[in-house]
Design goal:
about 425 residues; six-stranded antiparallel β-sheet; elongated
Length: about 425
């Protein structure tokens, strides 16, 4: 009798602990029996789904399933009960939960079997992923707005994401590339040695150009090759380390550099400065923004108003010689040289809705720091009032062009102007 009483006390204590763990979980928890009847829910269910626990306990779990999936759900339940083990529900599927007012919200669901008093129960942990989806959309929007080709790969070298510039420049459809090895984009002569280079990068990841002092080529879908510059940046996510590769077509630059090199070998190649490792999906947008190889600023765009700066990355700070606090909430035109402002205003006025990216060269910076820069202003596809400003330092290029013009108009020995 004492043994039975102690066993009963232990079971009661275990059940109390179980209920406390369920109640204090950060996710919404719904516990159902083998018949799909809800036995227990925790406090997180009400703010997420709008149901009070007394309204749900005793109902079929299909109460929380959207109508289009409700008919198939009992089959899925029975299939799970045949091999119950902790695992995510609906792998690779978009899941939704039905709220009391009939709305559907995107969720992740994890299933775990448990036994209570000899009865098999299934615990479903429900997590709201609306914010994660919003951040993912911002991240993808930034990549799509980038003028460079962007390829995102995982630690195994499998392509996870490409932007529209890859499709436009290289001729591949993104559906043909996602899931394929990144070596798909390399000429055959480079493929054998590339996995070792990838592994070397993953052993010591950092923001840096790829193949310094080497000729790099990307493979178009038609088999032709394109000379490119490639910049690599690691991105820590909850799925592991991803690598963002920014590819820039340098066909024209290579031609111009060769012409300039014949007269002036001092032209330096630009080096991107990317920053910051981030560890969660909510910070993906910031990671991509901060690690951009060129100066970038998020700007507010309103009709009949000057664009003003919401945020800037590190490369932007370096380029104009001012820190972020000095840039935010200022008009873009305040950073443009006074002699160039009218041209910038005129270009913005010509296409106030920015139906296509606006590109122009002007002097930009703060007092004491003035550089020639190439501005690219584009509007995000999914936003009416937000845009992206990208700034490239072309001071050396402008100086080289001025040198060429000078040499064309002056005698190389005397330095005197040529007679006309």
């Amino acid at each position: 009798m004492d043994h039975d009483r102690r066993a009963s006390q232990h079971r009661s204590a275990d059940e109390a602990l179980f209920r406390e763990l369920i109640e204090n979980a950060s996710d919404a928890i719904v516990v159902v029996n083998e018949s799909g009847i809800i036995r227990l829910v925790n406090r997180q269910v009400e703010p997420l789904l709008g149901w009070k626990r007394e309204e749900l306990v005793g109902r079929h779990v299909e109460t929380l399933i959207p109508e289009q999936a409700r008919g198939r759900h009992p089959t899925f339940r029975q299939r799970y009960l045949q091999d119950p083990e902790p695992r995510p529900m609906g792998a690779m599927a978009q899941l939704a939960a039905l709220t009391k007012d009939g709305n559907e919200i995107p969720v992740d669901i994890s299933l775990s079997p448990m036994r209570s008093g000899g009865e098999l129960l299934v615990s479903a942990a429900i997590r709201d992923i609306r914010e994660r989806q919003r951040v993912d959309a911002l991240f993808r929007g930034l990549l799509e707005a980038a003028p460079d080709m962007i390829v995102v790969v995982n630690a195994d070298g499998d392509i996870q994401l490409v932007n529209r510039q890859v499709e436009r420049v290289l001729g591949w459809d993104r559906s043909e590339l996602v899931g394929q090895s990144v070596e798909t984009l390399l000429p055959s002569r480079f493929r054998a040695g590339h996995p070792a280079l990838r592994r070397g990068f993953m052993e010591s990841p950092g923001v840096r150009p790829m193949g310094v002092a080497r000729v790099l080529e990307a493979l178009r879908r038609d088999g032709s090759e394109l000379p490119v510059e490639v910049y690599l940046s690691p991105l820590e996510t909850d799925q592991g380390t991803l690598v963002i590769a920014a590819l820039r077509d340098v066909t024209e630059q290579r031609r111009v550099r060769q012409e300039i090199r014949e007269l002036n070998e001092s032209l330096e190649r630009r080096v991107m400065d990317r920053a910051e490792e981030l560890a969660a999906s909510e910070r993906r947008f910031r990671a991509a923004f901060e690690s951009a190889p060129i100066g970038e600023a998020l700007i507010a765009l309103s009709l009949n108003k000057e664009p003003f700066i919401r945020d800037v990355n590190h490369a932007f700070e370096t380029l104009i010689g001012a820190d972020r606090r000095e840039c935010v909430d200022r008009s873009l035109l305040e950073l443009v040289h006074a002699d160039d402002r009218a041209a910038v205003e005129q270009a913005l006025a010509a296409d106030p809705e920015l139906s296509k990216p606006l590109r122009l060269d002007c002097r930009i910076g703060t007092i004491g720091v003035q550089r020639w820069a190439r501005l690219t202003i584009s509007r995000f596809d999914d936003a009416e009032s937000d845009g992206l400003l990208q700034v490239e330092d072309v001071t050396a290029q402008v100086a080289a062009e001025e040198q060429l013009r000078y040499q064309a108009l002056h005698d190389p020995l005397t330095g005197l102007a040529n007679r006309t």
